[in-house]
């Protein structure tokens, strides 16, 4: 019974494998294929794309959403912790924005209920974009082309933070990555995975990680304790859900990360301490399962995880509206 409980609870990070490998995926697999994005409001998503890339939403005029969630790098920055205003060291690893619309909440501690709420956080965070919502709105309202686009999307040219974050969220909703090789296998393509990759999936399942690394995003749908079998030792000060709920039971409980595109989103864990997938799988086996994976098992699981890389967002980079004479100048230096 203890082993079963550990396996179910070990889902937080990266673990081991389940059931019989079959040539064609049965209907009851714990992971489902990601569906292609359905753009509900193309004009709003296009406006949101511009805002996502616009550095003028930061005090320095140097940092955009894409700075920490780089769409050329798996939706992350590939740093242990991100760099903020005045080269401040960020407090936590930047989670991928790809497939983030599938998360039950946003940020590692889940303090934002959705993408819209999340989008406003970094703008006003003194350690990130270091602006205020009011100043960001003033900048956008001073740019005639933006005012025109807000009018086209919302019916009038009023610029406010609610519309800004709604637009950014609409763009981020489109950032899904379907048609990975694993998705192709799930859909019945018997040749999509190699023997080693199928072995890795079996190990991934039987070790119990699918208890939480499941669904279309292969995670992102629950909070779990980091360090189940033994405490996770880190110098990072982030303590997870306790910062939101105030409950000591939530200390070191973090949102389970999606494993979609995980080969691109290194380094791993909330503190970025695992530099490679091999290191991440090995650490999680020990901390969450109390299990020492063999080299072959590690190689197999990592091989499987590479099959979760889907089609990356492919779009034309936006040409941002030019500032006007009334646009406040950026302040990159204090």
UniProtKB/TrEMBL annotation:
Main location (coarse class): periplasm
Leader sequence residues: 1-23
One term of GO molecular function: peroxidase activity
Keywords: Heme, Iron, Metal-binding, Oxidoreductase, Periplasm, Peroxidase, Signal
SUPFAM superfamilies listed in its UniProt record: Cytochrome c
InterPro entries reported for this sequence: Cyt_c-like_dom, Cyt_c-like_dom_sf, Cytochrome_c_Peroxidase/MauG, Di-haem_cyt_c_peroxidsae, MauG/Cytc_peroxidase
Spans annotated as Disordered: 315-334
Compartment(s): Periplasm
This protein's name: Cytochrome-c peroxidase
Organism the protein comes from: Vogesella aquatica
Phylogenetic lineage: Bacteria, Pseudomonadati, Pseudomonadota, Betaproteobacteria, Neisseriales
């Amino acid at each position: 019974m203890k082993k079963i409980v550990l396996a179910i609870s070990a889902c937080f990070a990266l673990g081991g494998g389940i059931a019989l490998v079959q040539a064609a995926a049965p209907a009851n697999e714990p992971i489902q294929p990601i569906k292609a994005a359905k753009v509900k409001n193309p004009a709003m998503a296009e406006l949101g794309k511009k805002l996502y890339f616009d550095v003028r939403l930061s005090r320095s005029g140097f940092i955009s959403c894409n700075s920490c969630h780089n769409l050329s790098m798996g939706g992350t920055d590939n740093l242990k912790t991100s760099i903020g205003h005045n080269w401040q060291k960020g407090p936590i690893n930047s989670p991928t924005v790809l497939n983030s619309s599938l998360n039950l909440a946003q940020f590692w501690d889940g303090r934002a209920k959705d993408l819209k709420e999340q989008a406003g956080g970094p703008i006003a965070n003194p350690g990130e974009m270091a602006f205020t919502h009011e100043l960001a709105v003033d900048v956008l309202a001073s740019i005639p082309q933006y005012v025109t686009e807000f009018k086209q999307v919302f019916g009038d040219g009023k610029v406010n933070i609610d519309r800004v974050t709604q637009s950014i969220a609409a763009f981020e909703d489109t950032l899904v990555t379907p048609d990975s090789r694993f998705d192709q296998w799930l859909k019945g393509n018997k040749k999509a995975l190699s023997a080693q990759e199928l072995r890795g999936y079996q190990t991934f399942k039987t070790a119990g990680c699918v208890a939480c690394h499941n669904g279309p995003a292969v995670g992102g749908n629950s909070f779990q304790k980091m360090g189940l079998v033994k405490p996770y030792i880190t110098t990072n000060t982030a303590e997870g859900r306790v910062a939101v709920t105030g409950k000591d039971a939530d200390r070191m409980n973090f949102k389970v990360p999606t494993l979609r595109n995980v080969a691109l989103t290194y380094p791993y864990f909330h503190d970025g301490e695992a530099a490679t997938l091999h290191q991440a799988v090995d650490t999680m086996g020990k901390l969450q399962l109390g299990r020492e994976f063999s080299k072959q098992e590690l190689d197999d699981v990592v091989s499987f995880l590479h099959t979760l890389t889907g089609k990356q967002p492919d779009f034309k980079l936006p040409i941002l509206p030019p500032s006007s004479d009334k646009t406040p100048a950026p302040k990159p230096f204090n």
